[in-house]
Amino acid sequence: MTLDDLPPAGFHSKLALISAGGPFCDGYILGIIGIALPSIVRELHLTGVETGLVGAAALLGVLAGGMLGGAVSDRLGRRPLFTLNIAAFVVFSLLQGVGSSLLLLVSLRFLLGVAVGADYPIATSYVTEFMPRKLRGPVLSGLILAWWMGYTASYAVGYGLSFFPDMSWRIMLVSSAVPSLVLFCLRMGLPESPRWLVQQGRTEDARNVIRAHLKTDILPRAESQGQLSLLQIIRSPYRGTLMFVSAFWILQSAPGFAIHTLQAQLLHQYHVQNALLGSFCITGLTILGILPVTLGLINLVGRRLLLIGTFAISMAGLLLLGISPHPANWMIFSGFILYSISEAAGSGLQFVYPNELFPTAIRASAVGMACSFSRLGAALGTFLLPLGYARFGMQPMMLTAAGFMLAGLMISWIWAPETKNASLGEPPSLAEPSSSSICAS
Length: 441
Description:
Distance between the termini: 31 Å
Subcellular location: Membrane
Radius of gyration: 21 Å
Number of strands: 0
Organism: Gluconobacter thailandicus NBRC 3257
Shape: globular
Membrane topology: Multi-pass membrane protein
Order of helices and strands: HHHHHHHHHHHHHHHHHHHH
Largest sheet: none
Strand content: under 5%
Helix content: over 70%
Protein name: Major facilitator superfamily protein
Mean pLDDT: 83
Keywords: Membrane, Transmembrane, Transmembrane helix
């Protein structure tokens, strides 16, 4: 028996819940700007360029944080930053309350994004290295569920606060400090990853962690892959895997973050009355997409089919929005809801695939790189979307987003491997012979 085959234990449940707090806070921090943005635009008299910059600032921070957090975590361990980056959530969230200028607000959103980006590779690697095989997919996709719950919660809080005229957008942004502080307290005292300890040659430390928390003497084997720098990973045999993971993540995130961040603005462009309420309802329905994935759909249909199917359905929703220059309300809401639910389901693979495809020594670094590339696409999409619909209208923008989904569908069909039965550190079984050039070259 290996750690991959252990039965679920109480520690696995505890770790899953505490780890989920990070994505919850991430989603809250990134989501609250969407509901606060209309008030920010009015108070600070922002132009289209400035609006895009405020919306994209945190995503640019995620780009830097993913690279930095992953590399540091592979060198110093999962545990130190697992707690420290949440402290940054608290501090920078509170500082948003004193923001009185565009420059300060953008700077604080960027720094928050750095902390958020660092949490993605740290938390997901930490969870991956503790979870048995049967729990890995549901728990990692459950982190995405927690992200969407945090995102939805931010819209609920922001929409509720919008009824109180004295509650400014600053209060909305500061509110992310509350769940962050709770999480900071919960994460203190957790152990280091035993797989990382073994990879560092600290076998006795790993044995003590496993005995204390998993109640067994089974040790993970040391993997042959040693530590690599970010540049070495790009030049290594894992560069093809990194290309695949980054590509599907970028194609999901670029239109996804742009649409979700600017949801209220987009509904306003479509002349929908009470765009804030509409955006809250659409965002809330994303849970219907990711929940079945977490409850076992990811193991039932497999990673590959889930990725292909969600790209196809997302494309259908965006085409519904783009087929007419003046769509009826039922088309607007049907298109956004169909897209949001399927996009949320597909996003469940953003933490699963990269953590299952890379070995322990470079897992966090590779996940961080893929996350960073995806957030670069997301930041560009969020920055350019308001400029695009102002100049060209909504129809071309929705058709462009549908083109992203088509590209994702094609890439997934050709290169997506199946990893649901693979052990960590074990090469995945590739769906197509031609995939080997991407996933192992």
